[in-house]
Specification:
Mean pLDDT of chain A: 89
Distance between the termini of chain B: 51 Å
Radius of gyration of chain B: 30 Å
Order of helices and strands of chain A: H
Low-confidence stretches of chain B: 5-12, 42-47
Distance between the termini of chain A: 46 Å
Largest interface: B-C, 70 and 57 residues
Number of helices of chain A: 1
Chains: A mainly alpha, B mainly alpha, C mainly alpha
Shape of chain B: globular
Oligomer: heterotrimer
Shape of chain A: rod-shaped
Mean pLDDT of chain B: 87
Strand content of chain A: under 5%
Helix content of chain A: 55-70%
Helix content of chain B: 55-70%
Strand order of the largest sheet of chain B: 1-2
Low-confidence stretches of chain A: none
Number of strands of chain B: 4
Largest sheet of chain A: none
Strand content of chain B: under 5%
Order of helices and strands of chain B: HHHHHHHHHHHHHHHHEHHEHEEHH
Number of helices of chain B: 21
Largest sheet of chain B: 2 strands, antiparallel
Chain lengths: 45, 640, 323
């Protein structure tokens, strides 16, 4: 897709994808250890 | 034409089938042997009574005859099962005295043996992979390099064996009661260990000496299978010996007095066994890679032709690649080991990292900093092999700055030994600014960032000789940049927020988050680069076009690895404090105290220098085996 | 072979010879040994702490007072019990800061907690139960991760590797009660079996123990107030001839519990925390030195310094100290 060649668009898209991934990874990794997090990543316990 | 095509078609399935069969054969043999061996030692050793074993199978009655009276036979007395015996309780006078500190003798013997054992177990592992790569890419260079690595291993193997003998003798001489107890606990398993050496030796000799005889086609797959068998035997030896050491730290299968109450499998599989297995397996590979890298570096510096220089430059790069690649997951394996130690005994864990041995981890920081800096420096220096690296040269100084800053954070201690005056000057027992840098969250941030940036150096090096041609290259590059930025931010966030502003449990748990982040960077870097450089334009890279100075990184690496291995082995061993077998057999020898760090450091230097000398001996033997004295002219003329 | 001859034999520039590399072995060896020595230097520059090996000490139980029993408990808390490995003030502690808290008050709170499943009814029993069966009641947020505060990471104090005896555990309880001014409710031991007490296995960060009596005296600043070993000071009683006035037992008490007996004419100014700062070794070396100072052949408790002995001062029974 040509639009992806636009550096701004590709950076933005990449940022969205990566931030989402890390956000859910953080929550997932803490919860499998029995340490749940709130939506703002603060400890839930 | 058809005839030729048919022939080649027939050959392919045969090769694959042959390979498959060979691999299955070895796997089955190993699984069978190991399950047989383990079954032998599971279950009751003491027999049921004789009477129960010899059952009557029936009786014959004659017609008319009265039924015989049943005869009650008294059970034959078997030997009563021996009372379970605990570990011996030793007094100071029970220990043999030989005029030197027994602990230092065994320390040197054990560490030397472990250095060489690690080497001879590791080299066949990556030699097998290199040999396989040579087949896959049909490149003779890989095969020749693998062969050359094995040549070094042969001499090392003898030295490993004689050091093992020295260690065994010194243990039986200086700690006979400890050894008596260990033999009592491990029983026949020690003979299994000894017996495995028959397999290891046979496979090693066959693997090395059949190299040229089993060079091509199906025979090459047979050769690979022999190599696989060699590695299976070697790994089994490793895990069997690991059981002794982990038993001494965290005994299992015995009761509180040390009497054996479980079977041999329960004794072997303690809580620390698998963490040590994983850690030593990976660390051996890193260590072995570093040593052959030094070999390559040495041969590079003394190369007499440009071709030799190129050959050994390439070998050095490959060895360094193996060493750093295996080194990257080591902190995680080490973390698992420490976590299991804490889970087994919080006291033991804190002794290691928060108690008397805590300073050792500052020394460890110095060593790992050296390793990472040397590895990175070698990669940066190697960028000169290709013109395409000029695009990335600007990043190097920033990577260096981050590495040095992280190293300084890692090296900062938390608890300082202060006099009353100094406490007054400091305004407390910890420095206000630097104190917080001394605890685990800061260290975790530093380590993870160092690993991320080392991977960055590595990725830049790999990219240096390529130009991407795929249509979505811009997006993939943007993705990579964003991944780095977000990962670095995530590591810092996890460390600072959970480390300093939440409670202990979340602090400890956040380190897993950081590790995962680093692993994501590494995995995504590899995957993205694979897609990005499909059908890439290659910029020529010249092997051998690298400075002499860069080779010193290849010497720094094994020295640091060796000293680090000695250091960590010392921590592992002394975390037992005054116990031979923790909680079960107390140590009352004259050496039952934790020595000062300077004394320990001096011991490590002794073993490192001894090891250096022996390794040079091995390299010399390897090149001696290639040296041919030319016939003197007088004799030539006589024969002409 | 000369360059020209070599060129005849080569078809590629790959075979081009390089100038001979001089002294590669020396340079490589020098670098390697040098780097090794850098690591050695780092290890030797760091603070040198030697772990003290466990040492048996015999204590005369008949000579113990409640205060000295509590002092023994404190010594055990820091040493053989290895309590301070985990029980430290936040944020370092991996266990509640029992030294910093009033344990008797806290114990009563915990006994009233609905989660409490044990059988203790007094603070003394609660503390003992926490030592013998730590998992019966785990303070909130201190349990093993994932066990929801039902499993304690604390080892059993009366089992290996700590192996405190019943007397020793009572001493620790006495200390925990005494330090906040609560009454000591544990019974003093009355028999005199040899109590095995082991010298502290050093916890991290402890200052270096002194190697001689003189070093110890300098370390603890005795000469700031006492005339001793050539220095003079009017603040406290002179110690140059203290063996004339006090026996070993009394000298030791004066160091560990200075407020028990104040010499006439002097103020109650002596630091009271030597018992926690000094190692057993250091204490013994100092007492040996002071007890060996020139003494009369007459008996040692006849001077004015002793005239205000309180009932808690001990008899002049000899305390055996075996190392």
């Amino acid at each position: 897709m040509k639009i992806l060649n636009n550096p701004l668009v590709s950076m933005l898209l990449a940022a969205i994808v990566v931030l989402t991934f890390f956000y859910f990874m953080n929550i997932g990794i803490m919860s499998i250890q029995g340490l749940p997090l709130n939506a703002n990543l603060t400890p839930a316990q | 034409m058809l005839h030729k095509r048919l022939n080649s078609l027939q050959l392919l399935p045969k090769m694959r089938l042959q390979k498959l069969l060979n691999i299955m054969l070895v796997a089955v043999l190993f699984l069978g042997a190991s399950s047989l061996v383990s079954n032998l030692f599971i279950g009751d050793v003491y027999a049921d009574s004789v009477a129960q074993r010899i059952q009557s199978v029936g009786s014959i009655l004659l017609e008319g005859e009265p039924q015989p009276e049943p005869v009650v036979v008294e059970a034959v007395e078997t030997e009563p099962a021996p009372a379970p015996q605990g570990a011996p309780k030793l007094k100071r006078e029970d220990y043999p005295r030989v005029g030197a500190s027994s602990r230092s003798v065994v320390w040197i013997a054990a560490q030397m043996h472990l250095f060489f054992a690690a080497f001879v177990l590791a080299v066949p592992l990556f030699v097998l992979v290199i040999e396989w790569i040579g087949i896959k890419y049909a490149d003779d260079r890989y095969d020749d390099m693998a062969h050359e690595f094995m040549k070094i291993t042969m001499t090392a193997y003898s030295i490993t064996a004689l050091l093992g003998g020295f260690l065994a003798f010194s243990l039986f001489l200086l700690y006979p009661q400890v050894m008596e107890y260990m033999m009592r606990v491990f029983n026949l398993q020690v003979l299994v260990y000894a017996g495995l050496f028959f397999a290891e030796s046979a496979l090693l000799y066959i693997y090395y000496y059949s190299w040229d005889a089993l060079r091509y086609g199906n025979k090459k797959w047979l050769h690979l299978t022999v190599g696989l068998g060699l590695n299976v035997a070697g790994t089994t030896l490793l895990v069997v010996a690991n059981a002794w050491v982990t038993f001494m730290m965290a005994p299992s299968g015995v009761d509180a007095t040390g009497a054996v109450v479980g079977n041999i499998w329960e004794i072997i599989k303690g809580p620390l066994w698998n963490p040590i297995n994983l850690h030593r397996f990976i660390a051996n590979i890193a260590f072995g890679g570093a040593i052959v890298g030094a070999y390559a570096g040495y041969k590079f510096l003394s190369a007499k032709t440009v071709e030799m220089r190129a050959h050994y430059d390439w070998m050095g790069y490959t060895a360094n690649f193996i060493a750093i690649l295996a080194f990257l997951p080591l902190p995680f394996a080490g973390y698992w080991l420490m976590a299991e130690i804490y889970a087994y005994s919080q006291q033991m864990g804190i002794t290691a990292m928060g108690g008397i041995l805590a300073w050792l981890f500052i020394v460890q920081a110095v060593l790992i900093g050296t390793i990472l800096l040397a590895g990175n420096y070698y990669l940066w220096a190697g960028m000169s092999r290709t013109e395409g690296s000029k695009r990335y040269a600007w990043m190097i100084k920033y990577i260096a700055m981050v590495l040095v800053a992280c190293f300084l954070v890692w090296v900062t201690p938390h608890t300082l030994i202060l006099s009353a005056d100094e406490i007054k000057q400091l305004g407390g027992s910890h420095h206000k600014l630097l104190g917080p840098l001394g605890i685990m969250p800061a260290k975790n941030i530093a380590v993870n960032l160092m690993l991320i940036f080392t991977f960055l150096s590595f990725q830049l090096y790999r990219r240096a000789d390529k130009i991407a041609t795929v249509p979505y290259a811009n997006f993939l590059n943007a993705l990579m940049v964003v991944i780095y930025v977000v990962a670095i931010a995530n590591v810092i966030f996890a460390g600072v927020y959970y480390g300093y502003f939440t409670n202990t449990v979340y602090k400890v748990g956040s380190s897993v988050m950081q590790v995962a982040t680093t692993l994501v960077v590494i995995a995504s870097g590899i995957i993205i680069d694979t897609f990005l450089f499909k059908k890439a334009d290659m910029i020529p890279a010249v092997w051998g076009r690298v400075s002499n100075r860069s080779q010193y990184a290849l010497f720094a690496l094994p020295i640091a690895f060796t000293w680090l291995m000695a250091l960590m082995g010392y921590v592992r061993s002394s975390v037992r404090t005054h116990w031979h077998v923790y909680t079960v057999m107390k140590d009352n020898s004259p050496d039952n105290f934790v020595p000062s760090i300077g004394y320990a450091g001096n011991m490590m230097t002794i073993v490192t220098i001894l090891f250096l000398g022996m390794v040079l001996f091995i390299f010399w033997i390897a090149s001696l085996s290639e040296t041919k004295q030319s016939k003197p002219l007088a004799q030539q003329e006589l024969e002409a | 072979m000369s360059q020209e001859v070599k060129k005849h034999h080569q078809t590629e520039t790959d075979q081009q010879a390089l100038p001979p590399s001089s002294g590669v072995l020396t340079k490589v060896l020098g670098f390697s040994v040098g780097l090794t020595l850098v690591f050695t230097l780092v290890a030797n520059l760091l603070p040198q702490v030697e772990g003290e090996a466990p040492v048996d000490e015999v204590i005369d139980l008949g000579a113990l007072t409640p205060e000295s029993f509590a002092a023994l408990g404190e010594k055990l808390f820091m040493g053989k019990g290895t309590c301070t490995l985990c029980h430290k003030p936040p944020p370092l502690g991996r266990a509640p800061d029992i030294q910093g808290e009033n344990m008797v008050g806290l114990a009563e709170q915990r006994l009233a907690d609905e989660r409490y499943q044990g059988e203790a009814e007094t603070a003394e029993a609660y503390i003992l139960e926490s030592m013998i069966e730590p998992s019966i009641y785990v303070v909130k947020d201190w349990g093993v991760a994932g066990s929801d505060d039902t499993v304690s990471p604390m080892p059993k104090v009366n089992a290996a590797p700590i192996e405190l005896t019943e007397v020793e555990m009572n001493a620790v309880i006495a200390y925990l009660q005494h330090k906040d001014g609560n009454d000591i409710t544990v019974e003093l031991p009355t028999e005199t079996p040899a109590v095995e007490e082991q010298a502290p296995g050093a916890t991290g960060g402890a200052p270096l123990p002194a190697q001689s009596a003189e070093e110890a005296i300098k370390k603890y600043g005795c000469q700031a107030c006492h005339s001793l070993l050539g220095s003079s000071s009017p603040v406290g009683p002179t110690l140059d001839d203290v063996a004339r006035r006090l026996d070993r037992q009394q000298i030791q008490q004066s160091i560990l519990d200075p407020a028990a007996v104040i010499s006439e004419g002097f103020a109650n100014m002596m630091p009271t925390d030597f018992a926690e700062k000094m190692t057993v070794n250091e204490l013994n070396m100092i007492v040996d030195l002071l007890a060996a100072s020139p003494a009369d052949s007459t008996d040692s408790d006849s001077t004015e310094a002793d005239s205000s002995e309180t009932t808690t001062a001990t008899e002049t029974s000899n305390e055996e100290v075996a190392q």
